[in-house]
């Protein structure tokens, strides 16, 4: 049972959009390329991830990059950030990228499996006042060279309840989780495609986020990412629709639209 969380949101809060008062968001990128507990080769994706970082910075994200962290380090970094209320209070939200090896329902740090609950819960409304009523976005690129299943999935949870000021909201409200493929189908089957989600997100942000003050919302961008991913596998790579490929999947408890624009 979600006991809810109490806090204060802006009195000028738009019913449809999260406020962009500061035009900046905190971002942490975990790029896990080495796996000491698995029989997996080191993943070569550094250039793709650095391009993603630069693109995110161009639309207002303050990015911190970490590579090959063990599970306890991942949890520790996130918990420290979640408790930095003064810093988070001066931002419009938070984004976490986890780029790693995945198999079925499991994501991995360099030393062992990661627990998704332990990643999300520090940012719940009752534990992280600095992000109360603000969007918390988690993007996961889970890579695996083994191809087993076709996964074509996309879901978006639209606007929900409208908070008062001050307000009480579900503790796990304002979360958005995007996966490179549906959980349980973390396979690629082609070493060339291991960073396809990172590549597609970078491409869409570069090409479809307008210059401030014009804005575009996250749901529109995600629909474009799904489309570009399908084109990447079926079109650009010249593949038959019968062959294995994955489309991104999103799950949301956002209560408003998240919008982005390129900084001037």
TrEMBL record:
The lineage of its organism: Eukaryota, Metazoa, Ecdysozoa, Arthropoda, Chelicerata. Gene3D superfamilies: 3.40.50.1460. GO terms for biological process: apoptotic process; positive regulation of neuron apoptotic process; proteolysis. SMART domains: CASc (SM00115). Belongs to the peptidase C14A family. Residues 23-147 form the Caspase family p20 domain. GO terms for molecular function: cysteine-type endopeptidase activity. This is Putative caspase. Residues 168-262 form the Caspase family p10 domain. It comes from Ornithodoros turicata. GO terms for cellular component: cytoplasm.
């Amino acid at each position: 049972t979600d006991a809810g969380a109490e806090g204060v949101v802006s009195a000028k809060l738009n019913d449809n959009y999260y406020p962009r008062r500061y035009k900046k968001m905190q971002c942490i990128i975990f790029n896990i390329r080495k796996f000491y507990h698995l029989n997996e080769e080191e993943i070569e994706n550094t250039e793709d991830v650095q391009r993603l970082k630069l693109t995110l910075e161009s639309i207002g994200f303050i990015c911190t990059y970490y590579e090959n962290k063990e599970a306890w380090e991942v949890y520790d970094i996130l918990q420290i950030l979640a408790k930095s209320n003064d810093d988070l209070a001066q931002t419009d939200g938070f984004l976490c990228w986890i780029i790693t090896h995945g198999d079925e329902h499991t994501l991995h740090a360099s030393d062992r499996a990661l627990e998704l609950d332990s990643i999300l819960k520090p940012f719940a409304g009752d534990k992280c006042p600095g992000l109360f009523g603000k969007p918390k976005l988690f993007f996961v690129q889970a890579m695996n060279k083994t191809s087993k299943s076709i996964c074509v999935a996309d879901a978006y949870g639209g606007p929900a309840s409208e908070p008062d000021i001050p307000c009480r909201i579900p503790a796990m409200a304002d979360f958005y989780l995007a996966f490179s493929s549906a959980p349980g189908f973390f396979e690629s089957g082609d070493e060339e495609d291991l960073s396809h989600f990172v590549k597609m997100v970078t491409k869409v942000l570069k090409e479809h986020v307008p210059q401030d003050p014009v804005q575009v919302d996250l749901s529109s961008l995600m629909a474009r990412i799904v489309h570009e991913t399908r084109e990447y596998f079926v079109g650009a790579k010249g593949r038959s629709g019968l062959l294995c490929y994955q489309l991104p999947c999103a799950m949301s408890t956002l209560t408003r639209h998240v919008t982005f624009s390129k900084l001037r």
